[in-house]
Specification:
By secondary structure, this protein is an alpha/beta fold. It has eleven helices and eleven strands.
């Protein structure tokens, strides 16, 4: 999309190869994410979506290639540099990963207590502001087990936003949620992006969410071990002729014979 390309890239993935042992999951993957963009990684189960995200946030070391966050290469950074770089990001994991023994206030205050020297009264104000942003004001003293699944996801988002990151990463934010609650999460994501200009990178396979929130997507394929399509979801559905892309966007079963017949020599670009 032209609007995105006029902005500076805040994430650059260059020739990334990812794997475990001798198994290669992704090979020679390259793309950029632009400031303020809602960028979505899609594809069928097992294609490497979550693996790619975990490499971008520094949880895994690549077999080869580089990942740049706001101009800094996390793949070559030492521990001190990596800690500084990763303070620019927040991550919402699929499970939410809230500490069950802590209240919501304690969960959200933790990164502020660990990584800043702010006084407790200022931390209290910031925690309450973050909870208000995700519509959980008044729930400061609740424990995660006392909340619904959707409320837990919103609380985890508040914690991911605690340090005012430039980039938010989401791993299947709608997983396990009913359609109404999933739609509420989508709306919240868009509101935060619009109001704060936060760059967002989201892994999902939920079509409703993809069409609602994605400004640009890349589609991964397990057999290709990389990107087979790039563009807006609507244009990929309308214009990309790759059967694998059409199967995904139209919820059609992937028949192996058809897949073998249609092998795209180049990724489908529809921006």
């Amino acid at each position: 999309m032209e609007e995105a390309k006029e902005r500076e890239p805040i994430i650059e993935v260059k020739n990334l190869t990812a794997g475990f042992g001798e198994e290669i999951i992704l090979k020679d993957v390259s793309f950029s994410v632009y400031q303020g963009e809602i960028f979505v990684i899609i594809g069928a189960s097992g294609c490497g979506k979550s693996t790619l995200l975990k490499h971008i946030v520094g949880l895994y070391d690549p077999v080869a290639g580089n990942v740049y966050i706001d101009g800094d290469d996390i793949t070559t950074a030492d521990d001190i540099e990596l800690s500084r770089i990763l303070r620019k990001i927040g991550v919402l994991f699929q499970s939410g990963a809230l500490f069950s023994s802590m209240t919501l206030w304690e969960n959200i205050a933790l990164p502020l207590q660990e990584y800043t020297t702010l006084p407790e009264d200022v931390i209290d104000i910031m925690v309450r502001m973050k909870l208000q942003m995700v519509h959980l004001e008044g729930y400061e003293e609740k424990y995660p087990s006392e909340l619904s699944g959707g409320m837990q996801k919103r609380a985890a988002l508040a914690r991911a936003m605690a340090l005012d990151p430039k980039i938010l990463f989401f791993d299947e934010p709608s997983a396990g949620l009913d359609p109404v609650t999933a739609a509420e999460i989508d709306l919240l994501v868009k509101q935060i992006n619009t109001s704060l200009g936060t760059t967002m990178v989201i892994v999902t396979h939920e079509l409703a969410s993809i069409f609602t929130i994605a400004q640009r997507v890349i589609m991964l394929d397990r057999e290709e071990k990389g990107i087979i399509a790039t563009g807006t979801p609507h244009k990929l559905k309308e214009k990309c002729q790759d059967v694998r892309v059409q199967n995904f966007f139209n919820r059609k079963p992937a028949l192996s014979a058809v897949k073998e017949k249609r092998r795209a020599a180049q990724p489908c670009l529809a921006e």
